[in-house]
Structures are given as structure tokens and as C-alpha cells.
Amino acid sequence: MQTPKTIAIANAKGGAGKTITAVTLAGYLHTLGSTVLFDGDESEGAIKWAKRGGEDFPFGVLPASRYHEWQRGSFTYTLFDTHPSVEDVETAASIADLVIIPAVPDGTDTDGLLLTIATLQRVQCKNFKVLLTRVPSYATKAAADLREGLQAMGVNVFTAQIPRLDVFGKAATQGLVVNQLHNKTASRAWEAYVALGKEILA
Ligand SMILES: Nc1ncnc2c1ncn2[C@@H]1O[C@H](COP(=O)(O)OP(=O)(O)OP(=O)(O)O)[C@@H](O)[C@H]1O
Ligand SMILES: [Mg+2]
Fold it and tell me: Is residue 71 part of a domain?
């Protein structure tokens, strides 16, 4: 398949790590080519994040209502963050050539994940893939079990997975992408999304 240029991050379950994934992945893709992130969530988490950083924030974040003005623009990569709802999962499938589903390996998140997958299958989305996120060091077994279970259902799962690290929240609070924080944990956090980006572009 061709390299995806329009990527939506979706999960009907709230708090799965969509906004962290959208901003950090966009941050990585922006190091490779011009990138814009559209925020489709009315709570505007990504827009507010970028505003907190002001001039230090590295790429443009716009409300999704402005997508039609920009879609013929000169961006190499276009990303969408979405609201946690079935409707937004459907929208993601209709606009993106890759839908990433961030999923936390926790039993309470499984129903929302399965609903998201069923929705994408129902609208015949051809290219979606699960990203295991917020994986605590004590839950690598839970993550491996979820990966295996999804694969047994024929669902694609990224090899890259995102560890649970408080530094992601710190970057969000400061209005920065995590690679703009210079410490060991921030490097680990960034490298996880670099691995994801490389896997997407491979
Ligand atoms: N890898 C991670 N490690 C630690 N905390 C994380 C990680 N990813 C996300 N979080 C935290 O989990 C919470 C939810 O993350 P985020 O806002 O990205 O989820 P979301 O899916 O966009 O939520 P919503 O559905 O409300 O928009 C935030 O407090 C965020 O800082
Ligand atoms: Mg969000």
C-alpha cells in the first residue's frame, strides 16, 4: 500500500491517548515534511495544547471545520484528532487513508475498542491499525495478550507500542511536543512515537 498521507486517530472510548498520539506523531512527521493537525474534538484538546506553547509549538493545529479550506494545501502529512464517538470513528474512516486506534490494555477499555473496530469494519474501512498505548511496565503481559487477541481476530496491531510515561502529560501541560523536553524519559517517550512513525512510513 502507498504511504499514508492523511491519518486519523480514533477510538469511541475516551481517554485512550488519541490527542497525545495525534500531537506526538504529528510532531515526528513534521520533522520529515510539512504537517498540519486538524482537531475534530469540540473540547479542542489539541488546539489548546498548541496555544499553550505559542511560538514554541512546532506545527499548525486547526479546527476540523477548516479542513475543506486546507485539503488542497501544500502539507505533506495531514492528521486528524477526533472526539470519542462512533460518529467520529465513521468520519475518520471517510477522510483518512490510515486510521490509528490507540488502545489501552485494560479490561475497562475493551468494549470501546471492540465497538471502534466493529464500526470501522461496518463502514468497510480498508486500513486501520491498533496502537497499544499507555502501557505500564507492569502490564506488558496484558499488552501482549491484547495484541494476540486482536491478531487472532484478524486485526492489525502496530509492533510499536507506547509506554505509560508521565512526561507525555508534562509536555501537554507545557504546550510542547515531548522531544522538546530534554531528559531521559522524554527521549524514551519520543522514541516510541518515532518507531510508530517509521512503521507507518515503511
Ligand atoms: N503514553 C501515555 N503515558 C502516560 N499518560 C498518557 C499516555 N497517553 C495518554 N496519557 C494521558 O492519558 C490521558 C488521556 O490521554 P489523551 O487526552 O491523549 O486521550 P484522548 O483519547 O484524546 O482522550 P479524549 O477521548 O478525552 O479526547 C491524559 O491525561 C494523557 O496525559
Ligand atoms: Mg482527545
Answer: yes
